[in-house]
Specification:
The protein is an alpha+beta fold and 208 residues long. It has one domain. 25% of the residues lie in helices and 16% in strands. It has 6 helices and 8 strands, in the order H-E-E-E-H-E-E-E-H-E-E-H-H-H. Strands 1-6 form a two-stranded antiparallel sheet. A hairpin with a 2-residue loop joins strand 7 and strand 8. The longest helix has 21 residues. Bound molecules: iron/sulfur cluster (SF4) (2 copies). The site of one iron/sulfur cluster has 11 residues, from helix 4 and helix 6.
C-alpha cells in the first residue's frame, strides 16, 4: 500500500493550511498523533503514522465512525485513509458528528483475520460526544510486532521475498520480546518492509 504518499500529501496539505492561517495572524500546530494513542507502520520510506493515529479526532470532526479495529471508517473510503490534525486559535465553525449509515457492522473480520491476534475478543465502549462505539482491546506490542517491526512475514514481508522467519510470540508481547526478535529479520529486506495491515485490507466497510 502506498501509505507513504498519503502521509506525504497530508503533510503538504496541513503545512499549506497552517501557513494560510499563520499569515492571518493565527497560531497553528500540526499533529500526526494528537492523543498519542496511535502507533507507526513501517514502509520502505520509513515509519508512517498508523490508521489509529487521529482516528478519534476525525470521528469528533464528523468525518466518519470508529471501527472495531480502532480505525476511522468513512462512507467514501471505508478504513482506507489517514488523518492529520491542525490545532489553531482561529474561530472555526465545528462540524456535526457523522450520522449517516452505520459503517462498522461488527462483522469481526478484522479480529478474525489479524495474523497476530492483536485485536482481542473483548471490546471496550468508546464514547465520542453522543455516540458510543464498540472497539476491540488492542494489544499494542502484538500489533507493532507485525506492523511497525515487520516480524510477521504473512502480513506482507513474505510476499516480496522477505525471508524473515521469527516464531510468533505466545502470550504477552513486551517491547523486550520485540527487541529479542529483531535480530531474526531478513538482513537485506528489512530495509524495504511491505505491510498490508490486514485488519484494514479485509474490512468490508465502505464497499458493502
Ligand atoms: S472488519 Fe468488520 S468489525 Fe472490523 S472494523 Fe471493519 S466492519 Fe467493523
Ligand atoms: S495492523 Fe496487522 S497486526 Fe495490527 S491489528 Fe491490524 S492486522 Fe493485526
Amino acid at each position: 500500500m502506498r501509505w507513504y504518499q498519503t502521509a506525504f500529501e497530508l503533510r503538504f496539505a496541513a503545512c499549506e493550511l497552517a501557513a494560510f492561517l499563520s499569515k492571518r495572524g493565527h497560531k497553528t500546530l500540526i499533529s500526526e498523533n494528537l492523543l498519542g494513542i496511535g502507533s507507526q507502520v513501517d514502509s520502505h520510506r520509513g515509519f508512517l503514522p498508523d490508521a489509529r493515529c487521529n482516528a478519534i479526532e476525525a470521528v469528533a470532526a464528523g468525518l466518519g465512525q470508529m471501527g472495531k479495529s480502532g480505525s476511522l471508517l468513512t462512507p467514501e473510503f471505508g478504513p482506507h485513509q489517514r488523518q492529520i490534525v491542525i490545532i489553531t486559535d482561529a474561530q472555526l465553525t465545528a462540524n456535526e458528528l457523522y450520522y449517516g449509515e452505520i459503517l462498522c457492522h461488527e462483522c469481526q473480520t478484522c479480529v478474525a483475520q489479524c495474523p497476530m491476534n492483536a485485536l482481542g475478543e473483548e471490546d471496550i465502549p468508546l464514547r465520542i460526544a453522543d455516540q458510543v462505539f464498540s472497539v476491540s482491546v488492542i494489544s499494542r506490542h502484538r500489533c507493532d510486532w507485525s506492523k511497525k517491526y515487520a516480524l510477521c512475514s504473512e502480513e506482507g514481508p513474505a510476499m516480496i521475498g522477505n525471508k524473515t522467519k521469527v516464531p510468533k510470540p505466545e502470550g504477552l508481547v513486551t517491547i523486550e520480546t520485540i527487541a529479542n526478535a529483531l535480530p531474526g529479520r531478513d538482513l537485506i529486506m528489512k530495509k524495504r518492509p511491505c505491510i498490508l495491515e490486514t485488519c484494514l485490507h479485509k474490512c468490508p466497510a465502505g464497499i458493502c
